[in-house]
Specification:
single chain, about 160 residues, alpha/beta, three-stranded mixed β-sheet, 6 strands, elongated
Length: about 160
Protein backbone atom coordinates (compact mmCIF):
# COMPACT_ATOMS: atom_id res chain seq x y z
CA UNK A 1 0.00 0.00 0.00
CA UNK A 2 1.29 3.47 -0.92
CA UNK A 3 1.62 6.11 1.81
CA UNK A 4 -0.63 8.46 -0.18
CA UNK A 5 -3.45 6.01 0.58
CA UNK A 6 -3.17 6.19 4.37
CA UNK A 7 -1.26 9.34 5.30
CA UNK A 8 -3.06 12.14 7.07
CA UNK A 9 -3.77 14.93 4.58
CA UNK A 10 -4.30 17.46 7.36
CA UNK A 11 -0.86 18.61 8.47
CA UNK A 12 -0.14 21.17 11.16
CA UNK A 13 2.50 23.53 9.78
CA UNK A 14 4.54 26.49 10.91
CA UNK A 15 6.90 28.91 9.22
CA UNK A 16 10.45 29.46 10.50
CA UNK A 17 9.56 32.78 12.17
CA UNK A 18 6.80 31.29 14.36
CA UNK A 19 7.72 31.74 18.04
CA UNK A 20 7.80 28.63 20.22
CA UNK A 21 4.87 29.70 22.38
CA UNK A 22 2.70 30.00 19.29
CA UNK A 23 4.06 26.69 17.98
CA UNK A 24 3.09 24.96 21.24
CA UNK A 25 -0.37 26.50 21.05
CA UNK A 26 -0.74 25.25 17.47
CA UNK A 27 0.21 21.74 18.57
CA UNK A 28 -2.38 21.87 21.33
CA UNK A 29 -5.04 23.23 18.99
CA UNK A 30 -4.41 20.51 16.38
CA UNK A 31 -3.80 17.71 18.94
CA UNK A 32 -0.41 16.86 17.45
CA UNK A 33 3.12 16.41 18.76
CA UNK A 34 4.92 18.08 15.88
CA UNK A 35 4.71 20.80 13.27
CA UNK A 36 6.18 20.56 9.82
CA UNK A 37 8.12 23.72 9.06
CA UNK A 38 7.44 24.95 5.55
CA UNK A 39 9.02 27.43 3.20
CA UNK A 40 6.28 29.30 1.37
CA UNK A 41 8.17 30.92 -1.48
CA UNK A 42 5.72 30.78 -4.38
CA UNK A 43 2.57 29.51 -2.72
CA UNK A 44 3.91 25.95 -2.72
CA UNK A 45 4.58 24.31 0.60
CA UNK A 46 8.05 22.79 0.72
CA UNK A 47 8.90 21.12 4.04
CA UNK A 48 12.23 22.37 5.37
CA UNK A 49 12.20 21.07 8.94
CA UNK A 50 10.23 19.66 11.83
CA UNK A 51 9.73 20.83 15.40
CA UNK A 52 8.32 18.55 18.07
CA UNK A 53 6.82 19.13 21.48
CA UNK A 54 9.93 17.47 22.90
CA UNK A 55 12.18 19.96 21.07
CA UNK A 56 10.29 22.84 22.66
CA UNK A 57 10.43 21.33 26.15
CA UNK A 58 14.07 20.20 26.08
CA UNK A 59 15.62 23.05 24.12
CA UNK A 60 13.63 25.96 25.54
CA UNK A 61 11.43 25.33 28.57
CA UNK A 62 13.83 23.05 30.47
CA UNK A 63 16.70 25.45 29.76
CA UNK A 64 14.74 28.32 31.27
CA UNK A 65 14.40 30.20 27.99
CA UNK A 66 11.20 32.15 27.40
CA UNK A 67 9.43 30.37 24.49
CA UNK A 68 8.30 33.73 23.13
CA UNK A 69 11.93 34.72 22.53
CA UNK A 70 12.85 31.77 20.31
CA UNK A 71 11.53 30.92 16.87
CA UNK A 72 10.87 27.58 15.28
CA UNK A 73 13.93 28.16 13.05
CA UNK A 74 16.17 28.10 16.13
CA UNK A 75 15.03 24.69 17.43
CA UNK A 76 13.72 22.87 14.35
CA UNK A 77 15.54 19.88 12.98
CA UNK A 78 16.57 20.86 9.47
CA UNK A 79 17.79 17.36 8.57
CA UNK A 80 14.32 16.38 7.47
CA UNK A 81 13.62 12.94 6.04
CA UNK A 82 10.58 12.86 3.78
CA UNK A 83 8.65 10.11 2.03
CA UNK A 84 7.51 10.32 -1.57
CA UNK A 85 3.77 9.82 -1.93
CA UNK A 86 4.39 6.66 -3.99
CA UNK A 87 6.49 5.08 -1.24
CA UNK A 88 5.17 1.78 0.12
CA UNK A 89 4.28 0.98 3.71
CA UNK A 90 7.34 -1.26 4.15
CA UNK A 91 9.66 1.47 2.88
CA UNK A 92 8.01 3.89 5.33
CA UNK A 93 8.60 1.42 8.17
CA UNK A 94 12.24 0.91 7.13
CA UNK A 95 12.80 4.67 6.91
CA UNK A 96 11.32 5.20 10.37
CA UNK A 97 13.49 2.41 11.79
CA UNK A 98 16.70 3.70 10.21
CA UNK A 99 16.15 7.35 11.17
CA UNK A 100 14.35 6.93 14.49
CA UNK A 101 11.63 9.28 13.21
CA UNK A 102 8.09 8.63 14.45
CA UNK A 103 6.54 11.09 12.00
CA UNK A 104 7.52 11.72 8.38
CA UNK A 105 6.20 14.31 5.94
CA UNK A 106 4.84 12.96 2.67
CA UNK A 107 5.69 14.96 -0.44
CA UNK A 108 4.62 14.99 -4.08
CA UNK A 109 7.08 14.37 -6.90
CA UNK A 110 7.61 18.15 -6.98
CA UNK A 111 8.53 18.19 -3.28
CA UNK A 112 5.36 19.87 -2.02
CA UNK A 113 3.89 18.76 1.29
CA UNK A 114 0.83 16.56 0.82
CA UNK A 115 0.52 14.76 4.16
CA UNK A 116 2.20 13.19 7.14
CA UNK A 117 2.64 9.58 8.17
CA UNK A 118 3.06 8.57 11.79
CA UNK A 119 4.36 5.38 13.32
CA UNK A 120 0.79 4.70 14.46
CA UNK A 121 -0.41 4.95 10.84
CA UNK A 122 2.19 2.43 9.68
CA UNK A 123 1.40 0.05 12.54
CA UNK A 124 -2.33 0.27 11.77
CA UNK A 125 -1.79 -0.63 8.10
CA UNK A 126 0.67 -3.42 8.87
CA UNK A 127 -1.56 -4.93 11.57
CA UNK A 128 -4.49 -4.95 9.14
CA UNK A 129 -2.37 -6.70 6.50
CA UNK A 130 -1.13 -9.21 9.08
CA UNK A 131 -4.69 -9.94 10.21
CA UNK A 132 -5.58 -10.80 6.59
CA UNK A 133 -2.67 -13.25 6.50
CA UNK A 134 -3.71 -14.80 9.81
CA UNK A 135 -7.26 -15.21 8.49
CA UNK A 136 -5.87 -16.93 5.39
CA UNK A 137 -3.83 -19.35 7.51
CA UNK A 138 -6.83 -20.05 9.75
CA UNK A 139 -9.14 -20.66 6.78
CA UNK A 140 -6.56 -22.94 5.16
CA UNK A 141 -6.31 -24.98 8.36
CA UNK A 142 -10.11 -25.20 8.62
CA UNK A 143 -10.32 -26.46 5.04
CA UNK A 144 -7.70 -29.14 5.72
CA UNK A 145 -9.63 -30.29 8.81
CA UNK A 146 -12.89 -30.37 6.84
CA UNK A 147 -11.25 -32.35 4.04
CA UNK A 148 -9.71 -34.79 6.49
CA UNK A 149 -13.09 -35.27 8.22
CA UNK A 150 -14.71 -35.92 4.85
CA UNK A 151 -12.02 -38.47 3.95
CA UNK A 152 -12.64 -40.39 7.21
CA UNK A 153 -16.40 -40.40 6.61
CA UNK A 154 -16.01 -42.17 3.24
CA UNK A 155 -16.12 -45.99 3.32
Amino acid sequence: MKVREFCSRVVAVAVPTTDLREAAQMMREHHVGSLIVIDQLTGATKPIGIVTDRDIVVLAVASGVDPKTLTVREVMRPELTVLGDDCGVFEAAETMASTGARRLPVVTKGGDLMGIVSLDDVLRVLSTELSFLVATVNRSTEREIEMHATDKAMP
